[in-house]
Design brief:
two-stranded parallel sheet; elongated; 5% strand; single chain
Length: 171
């Protein structure tokens, strides 16, 4: 009898603590789509991506041209000439790989541009979310855009519009 009463009280205490927590949800994709500066930054990122991709593709085409030329002349080349052509192809491939890394690597130009353009906007959004969390007493705020495990969330806990209002963008 004592065990069952103790178990019931423990379950009641856990339920009380769990119900006292407040959760909210935001959708950063939705928020960013409604911030003109973020859209402008996104456009600049897309332009830079196209430019960098074009340069990488041009370098890759040079490698392909060298390789096709090598294949076409393979039977008429001496061993020394074959080695020279192969070395030239390998060098061009390395240039293409280095260029790809320079632009698209984790510390590449695109990542730096993203940090420069989107960093301040993301910081503003974070500060607005933090302030709303403190004001309304939220214990946890999830981002619907990045939380792949959220299967369903009640729309009434979505505070994305409040974040936009806090940033000065009404929707």
């Amino acid at each position: 009898m004592k065990k069952s009463v103790l178990l019931m009280m423990l379950m009641l205490a856990v339920a009380t603590v769990a119900s006292a927590q407040k959760f909210a949800l935001i959708d950063t994709e939705y928020i960013m789509k409604n911030i003109p500066a973020a859209q402008s930054a996104n456009d600049q990122m897309q332009q830079a991506t196209k430019k960098y991709q074009g340069e990488v593709e041009a370098k890759t085409k040079e490698v392909q041209a060298l390789y096709q030329d090598y294949q076409a002349k393979l039977h008429s080349l001496s061993t020394v000439q074959k080695t020279q052509k192969e070395d030239a192809i390998v060098a061009k491939e390395k240039e293409a790989a280095d260029l790809r890394k320079k632009y698209f690597g984790p510390d590449g130009e695109l990542a730096k541009l993203n940090d420069k353009l989107m960093g301040p906007i993301k910081d503003e959004v974070y500060e607005a979310v933090k302030e709303l969390a403190e004001r309304h007493g939220y214990d946890l705020i999830l981002d619907r855009a990045t939380a792949s495990e959220v299967i369903f969330a009640n729309p009434r806990i979505d505070i994305s519009d409040e974040v936009l209002q806090k940033l000065g963008y009404s929707n």
